[in-house]
Amino acid sequence: MTLPHTAVETPVFMPVGTVASVKAVPQHLLEELGAQIILGNTYHLYLRPGHELIRRMGGLHRFMSWHRAILTDSGGFQVFSLNELRKVTEDGVEFRSHLDGGKHFFSPEHSMDVQIALGSDIAMAFDECTEYPADYARARKSLDLTLRWAERSKTHFDAHKHERPWNQVPSHPSPAAQDGAPASNMPPEAMPSLFGIVQGGMYKDLRREAAERLVEMDFPGYAIGGLSVGEPRELTREVIAETLPYLPKDKPRYVMGVGYPDEIVEYAKMGVDMMDCVLPTRAARHGLIFTSEGRLNIKNRRFAEDHGPLDPECGCMVCQRYSRAYLRHLMASQEPLAAVLNTLHNLAFYLNTMQRLRDRLDTPLPPE
Amino acid sequence: MTLPHTAVETPVFMPVGTVASVKAVPQHLLEELGAQIILGNTYHLYLRPGHELIRRMGGLHRFMSWHRAILTDSGGFQVFSLNELRKVTEDGVEFRSHLDGGKHFFSPEHSMDVQIALGSDIAMAFDECTEYPADYARARKSLDLTLRWAERSKTHFDAHKHERPWNQVPSHPSPAAQDGAPASNMPPEAMPSLFGIVQGGMYKDLRREAAERLVEMDFPGYAIGGLSVGEPRELTREVIAETLPYLPKDKPRYVMGVGYPDEIVEYAKMGVDMMDCVLPTRAARHGLIFTSEGRLNIKNRRFAEDHGPLDPECGCMVCQRYSRAYLRHLMASQEPLAAVLNTLHNLAFYLNTMQRLRDRLDTPLPPE
């Protein structure tokens, strides 16, 4: 997959960098881990520091000094999940900021403007994430809105995608920008992509219809959204399995917001090219560690004098150097280093798992 | 200065790693910054995870995977500063844990046992940190106790210093321990050192007497303690200037708990070899940044769109890559990465300042 800022090898897992930071991890360590592409949350970045500020700073890559690829979501998911008082109309969604309660409005056109200002490599169509459970009539109605919004997203995006922030600012005044591949050195012809999002609740025929109608609109890539919203895991797998055949194999197929290590392996083997999830980073901050032997809670007393690494099969920078005993102590003492090291390991575990799949190594499902 | 784990070039600034972590900084980045020796707090480590646990884990170096030198304080300062209900007797100090209120007792002998269990390269004599202000009679009485405790500290330390934790555990079961210079590869003859601490309040004659009596006891290094306890800065400088001449030039002279960048340069130029302070790390977590142009509060709105690095004169890994605008955003968003990056820069600034002094470069006093 060739993107403005980099080529990305698939299948790929995208660490989540909600507000211009993959929580607790310096960018150069994220590079060392082999992260090829990260996800930024449009809703959060729009509220703070604001997309206009990021545009003036030369785009999100330059603002956060991340030289590889960035995918931004549309903001839809957060608007729906963080807002109890949202008001949906044909035009878009009115919502209140979770930071200060201020009123805001997102339409497909506005979401595109924000994502273009951020300068992401891949933008996502503005969609309504159908809640779970939703009855058929509700899922049908929600899907129709999502499809009309997809059309509007594409029209607006194609008309404005050339307004890249990285052509609009002078060079960085410090020698810093020379390091790596500064966003301002982007070839002027490099264009971001917009992906469509398949919704349709848990209904097979709606998912098929959504896929087919999006394919008619001809997006350069397709996502399956509206999963991991509370449905049983078997249902997630079913919806993915039933939707994938209607999405072209020669374009990236992205399942949003999944999952546990065994899920990402399973979905990648089914043909999914891209996945993102807060799980490895968020769990790390709470002491939940993913390993080749299964999950462990590093806060557990039984690790208090354990000389071994988090995962004996893992060669990451954390497992090479630190013992479970030390990492348990850092959590018990609420040391900020705990979040840094736990996150580094969990991301290494996810990224190495995907690397193994790319190398076509025999990758057994990690234990649940 | 040759220590069991490493040789240390002086003058040296020692980052503070209170509970086996220089807050928010992974050990390999601390090495990249050029930190030669860090300080561990005996009081905190005794309470959590406990010195016996650390001994069983092979000592503090191995527990935290830090291959360079470690100095431990005696616990005295924290016992006195964190405890309102402490009870001082000739034998030692009874105090309550700030974690759970539990009763504990520290004597000179016990402090030595704890520091030997931690396996530090440099241990400190157990002292009473005289409060400020203290009248002459109080300072006299406190100093006499400190000197009797210094004698007891030395006797006990010399009798037990061969009980090094790093000779007492088997090799690390993971390949990790082969990385760097594992503590268990220490030469068996390597012995830790015990430094004496000069007290005496702000009284010139008491400081002189303390220095002379400690020199008679023949320590391998001497610290000036009881400063930065609330006295005016000019007085700190005076006490240091008046005490240094009574401490041998050919042994390390250490001023505890200082200071601002201009102070550490000034004291180093006066002949101080070692300093430690929580300032660069603690201030960083609150957004206070030290630069060649003075201090700045990175939370300030005026940095919101500032493309420049924290310090244009600084070549550290943070200044090479990140803008003030980004670092301000991380603070505003309470991102954990803010503490990591701010701390890396502040430590780089302190350590580079000392490097310049060692290189005998003309080092002007940094702005206040």
Label this structure with key terms.
3-stranded antiparallel sheet, TIM Barrel, 2 domains, 13 helices, 38% helix, alpha/beta, 13 strands, homodimer, 368 residues, 6-stranded parallel sheet
Q: What gap, in angstroms, lies between the N and C termini of chain A?
A: 30 Å
Number of domains of chain A: 2
State the helical fraction of chain A: 25-40%
SSE succession of chain A: EHEHHHEHEEEHEHEHEHEHEHEEHH
Gyration radius over CA of chain A? 20 Å
Unreliable spans of chain A: 171-184
- Name given to the CATH architecture of the largest domain in chain A: Alpha-Beta Barrel
According to CATH, the fold-level topology of the largest domain in chain A is: TIM Barrel
**What share of the residues of chain A does DSSP label as strand, in percent?**
5-15%
Describe this protein's structure.
The structure is a homodimer of 368-residue chains. Mean pLDDT of chain A is 93; it is low at 171-184. In chain A, the strands form four sheets. In chain A, strands 1-11-10-9-8-7 form a six-stranded parallel β-sheet. Chain A is an alpha/beta fold and 368 residues long. The radius of gyration of chain A is 20 Å and the shape is globular. Chain A starts with 11 loop residues before the first strand and ends in a 10-residue tail after the last helix. Chain A is built from 13 helices and 13 strands. Chain A has helices spanning 27-33, 42-47, 51-56, 60-64, 76-82, 108-118, 136-160, 204-217, 233-243, 261-270, 279-285, 324-332, 336-358, and strands at residues 12-15, 37-40, 69-72, 87-88, 93-96, 103-106, 122-124, 193-198, 222-224, 253-255, 274-277, 288-291, 294-297. Chain A is 38% helix and 13% strand. Chain A has two domains: 12-166 and 189-277, Queuine tRNA-ribosyltransferase-like (TIM Barrel); 286-358, no CATH class. Chains A and B meet through helix 12 and helix 13 of A and helix 12 and helix 13 of B.
